[in-house]
Structures are given as C-alpha cells and as structure tokens.
Amino acid sequence: MNRHTSIAQLQSEKEFDICIIGGGATGLGIAVDAANRGYKTILLEQSDFAKGTSSRSTKLVHGGVRYLQQGNIKLVMEALKERGRLLKNAPHLVHNQQFIVPNYKWWEKPFYGVGLKIYDWMAGRLGLGPSQFLSKQEVIEKVPGLDENGLNGGILYHDGQFDDARLAIALMQTAVQKGATMLNYFSVNRLLKINQQVGGVGVKDMFTGNEYEIKSKVIINATGVFVDAIMKMDNPKHENIVSPSQGIHLVVDKDFLNTNTAIMIPKTDDGRVLFAVPWHTKVVLGTTDTPVDKIVTEPEALDTEKEFILKHIGRYLAKDPTAADVRSVFAGLRPLVKGNTKNTAALSREHFISISSTGMITITGGKWTTYRKMAADVLHIAAQKNNLPPVKCSTQNLPLAGATNTIIPADISNATNEEIAAMVKIAVHEEWCQTVEDFLSRRTRQLLLDVAVAKAKAPLVAKLLAIELNKDVHWVNDQIIIFNQIADGYTMKG
To answer: Are 4 and 203 in contact (CB under 8 A)?
Structure first.
C-alpha cells in the first residue's frame, strides 16, 4: 500500500460510509475506529498527516496535572485511562517517563504531593508507578542539572512520553490495514449537497491538480484550528467557534538536563505548567499559551514567547540556556473552543462535537492523549444519525501498526548516505512521504531536533526522494528552496 494505491481505491469506490476531513490526531483516530468497525472509510488531509498541531506537541501522553489543579476531574480521569491504553497499544512509541517537581518553598512539597497522590489514585490499575517524596540529595542525584540554590527536595511522579508524528503515522498505517483509504495532500474545496443535506465533498490532488467528487453517508470535519473554514463552506453565516492559542517549544542539547528524568514546574508567571523533557537526543522546553488571531499552516514563535521560556527555565537549571544554545524552535496552534474568558489557559481542552442542519459533524478541541475516546464519541453520534450498522467501538485494546517494523530514527545526524537512502524508501513506499519537509520534520524529527543539521541533510534527501517519486532536477531544487524557507521559521531568529 502507498499513496498511489489509495488514489486507485478512491477512484474505484462509488460511496463511502465515513468521509473524514483532516489528518491530525483527531481525524486519524476516527479513521482507525471507523475502519475497525467495518465502515467504508476515507480520510482527506490538505497537507501531510499531522502537519499542524499534532506534530508540535510537548510530546507527553498525560492526564494533565494542570487540569487537576483547575478541578477538571472528568478530563483528568478520561485522559489517565487513555494514557494507560496507549502505553499498551503502542509500546514502540509511548513509554513511562519519570518527572520531578522540584520544591523551593516549604509549602510546595505537601501541596503538590497531595495533588500527585490523587493523580496516582485516579489512574488506578492503569497507573505507571506511585509518586514519591524525595530529599534534596535524592533530587540532585536524579537531576544533576537542577539549580541547587534554595532547593528543599521534590516529588517524583510518572506520566507518558511519545513521538507525536510517529504515532500519527502508526494510526494512518493501522487505518490502512483495516481497509481505510488515507490520502495526504488532498484538499477539500467544496461540500456536495443532496436535498439540502451534505452527501459528499469535492477534492483536489495538490500535486496533479486532478479533481474528484467523493460521495459519503457521513462527513466529519476534524480539521483542528481550521474547522471554522469547513463550517463556512457548509454555512457562509457560520460564526467561529475556535479561539486559537499558540504554544511554543525550544529544543536544547541533553547536557542542560543531563538525565533521563524530566522536570515539571507547576506554575509560571502566566499560570502555565513549564516542562523540560528529554526527547530523543535533546531536551524539549515548553510551553507557552498565547492567544493568536491568525490561523496559518506554519505558525512561528514570537520573540516574547522565546524569552519567556528561557527566562523561566533559567530559574531552575544550574546552567542557563541562552538563545545561542537553542537548536530548534517549534510552534503549534491549539483549537480551543470559545468561552467567555480572554485567558486561553482557561478555555476548554475537552472536545466539542456539533451537527449542522445539513448533517455535517464537526469535532474540535481535545488533546492527543484522548484522541481514541474522541473518535469513539463522534462515531457513536455518526452511526446514530446516519443509520449506519450499530457496531461497537473496540479500539480500547487494538495494537497500533509499526511495533514489529523498523522505525525510522528521529535523529539522522550521524546516519550514512546509504542509511538515509533506505529510510527514504520506507518513508515513501510505506508512509506516504511526499516532500523533503515530510521526511525531515515528521518521518524523521530532524527539523525539530536541530535545524542546522536538517538544512545540511536537505539536498541529499531531495535527491533520494526524487528517485523514489520519479521527479526531475527542477523538483529537487524547488524542494530544497521550500524546505529552507520553512526551516528558517524554526530558528531563534525566525
């Protein structure tokens, strides 16, 4: 199976049961569940799978300690259950990560300690390990990179860590194994209506320009921050429901933390949690929560956001990272459902499902950890409203694709040309990779780990992709230019 065979599937199928617009975590999760129930399923993504927010997360599969502080018990309980399921279903991509909350004030240990014990209790049998109170010396032994000045001790707890883009590819492959038609670089440009009900979509292949009409019993809009644009196709008078918020991350070398244990700072000046998490060969620092007006495919970090993270993390690390130490900066937009507050940190992280008068179903909000539950909820509604066979969700214990495959390494800085050639072959023929950016940002994670290395590898990757995709030298040159333009947005200078 590859993108060509998916296009052939699209052309041979007269009508689908489920058509999903959007190939991020939410859409991919729905495709897996729908195909697993036996529904004829197609997914259409205008860019690459997980191109947007879904490849730009803090890399955590977690219940959400912050939501517990906010009193959102339901969301935390749900997320902790899903965290446990993900560790069982994708052990090749999700693992148990130790975190330490360092305590610098006398009241922090009892206050956060009680909260984390509740967190453990809520996880129940799906817990990853009990939280523990640590002395100052025990904290320093576990995290030698911490600032010891004023340190009283800390609390150790467990959460999940993962590679978001690789999990997205695993979901895509799982859906394909279950019979779904999965297409990246297919843009939906109109909705087809029969008797004032949505009954299909008009789409365009972004590479060939070929256009298709796809009929489907159910249309699900799962486009994240772009849901309002699709809803306006359905109803030009639609009022926006998403209030986008930007979260950014800085990536630095491992020696700033010098351990495999992550740290979590429970409260920063803007009320957010701050993380320093070992990820592949680096450490991810983040995140921010900045309201934004513009929704773009390549959001860029603001100088104020970069300064905010460096300033706050510098309070806790013995060696303060500077702008010169940052290897990559990445930004993602959260599709927060509008509320009556100007503070995006307080807007709903829970998912929101609506059905329009024409029958189109929209789902937005939520987070990576709960993608499977979101899919189950929306398909329950879709089956009820559209008279699909009432098949129960059975993804709770469904292993995801890739556990027995050779996974392309995230960091290819030390890979030989031959090794990279083998990776490109897998990426194109098994993972729908179509561009240099697909390969260096999401099939590997080089762009997010080190921009300079990614730029240096781009010419070789372009040539290797051209061989597999049967492209000419002009395509190679164009791809290098496009990639370098995107990569510039991942630097501290932006």
So the answer is: no
